[in-house]
Amino acid sequence: MVAHDADAERASGDETARQRAIHEETARLRALLRDAAGLPAGGASPVPAGWEARLATAEELNARLRASEAFTARLLAASRDSIQVLALDGTVQWLSEGGRAAADQPDDPVIGTAWAASWPDPGDRIAAEVALAAARSGRTGRFRAPSGSQDPRWWDVVVSAIQGPDGTPERLLAVARDVTEAHRAEEQQALLMQEMAHRVKNTLALVQAVAAQTLRSASTLDAAMEAFNGRLMALSDAHDVLIRGAWAAADLAAVVEGAMAPHLDREAGRFAAAGPRVSLGPRSVLTLSLMLHELATNAAKYGALSSPTGRVAVTWELAGSAEILLRLRWQESGGPPVAPPTRGGFGSRLIERSLVHSFGGRVSLRFPPEGAVMELEAPLAAMQDGTA
Fold first, then answer.
1. For 167-176, how does the pLDDT look when each residue is reduced to its tens digit (9 = 90+)?
2. 3-state DSSP call for residue 12?
């Protein structure tokens, strides 16, 4: 209520001031008319009363015009768009306050300069000339371009004609809207799409390799189907871990737990994992998940996890000074006596080839009677590589 009264009082004051200005201007005109007729200040006016009303009406209209012009000026000043009025040849004739603030050099003179030449890139200057030509022909020209070099802002520019009394273009209107945030979002989306396409291709290549290796080493079609399904599930679990890390990195502990989860029963204490917090890149996450899946599958069929008393421990540590190394150890115990396999399967080839070739480390897989032992050592930087 207080704000409403204040607005009303302010509006009343503005109206009083406007009326006072009108009366003063009317009195001035009357004085001029008396001076022209040679009459004293208090003499009768030679102007009919109707003309006095017309003078008052004219002043009223002038006051309204001035108020409208002031409002238009405030409206343009409030706009964050760069608004410029151009001559037909593209010379800047008028520039809004928002346009001056958006200029790369706001203190440089703009009026009288060539608008198209203000765009720094030659290709953008050509686009600006094309937009000017379209506007001169009565159409609308539009393009998107950056301004500045240090921290460029992107602009969506629309150029249209200002029609004259005869309906032909008299001047040109160039309105540029800041779309920097939208442009950056579009660039980020394009980058993500490229990254997704790259990862899909690599994942399909990995699935193809897993399928080929599975069929090559399986004794029967049913065995191949079972092994292939298990490996696909391991890849799926690894992808879940990566998704939680936005495909940038994943914690080694989460990778180990995810790979082991399908192979553990409800009995507590059969599996233990310990080590410092280590982030891994997408490529090493997929490879390690498959490797741990193969070790856990063999342990469930022939090793420690095939016996109620069997245990599996996965430990890791960081070592080295000049080059930090990741050392990971898989050790089984408490299960039936084990013996080295008579032929190497998919898991053995994955461990001995993929890890060594991909990450430049070394790995050993031994089968003492008390349980299988796998030891891996690889440069941490290679394991944290962001490619997948």
1. 899 999 999 9
2. helix
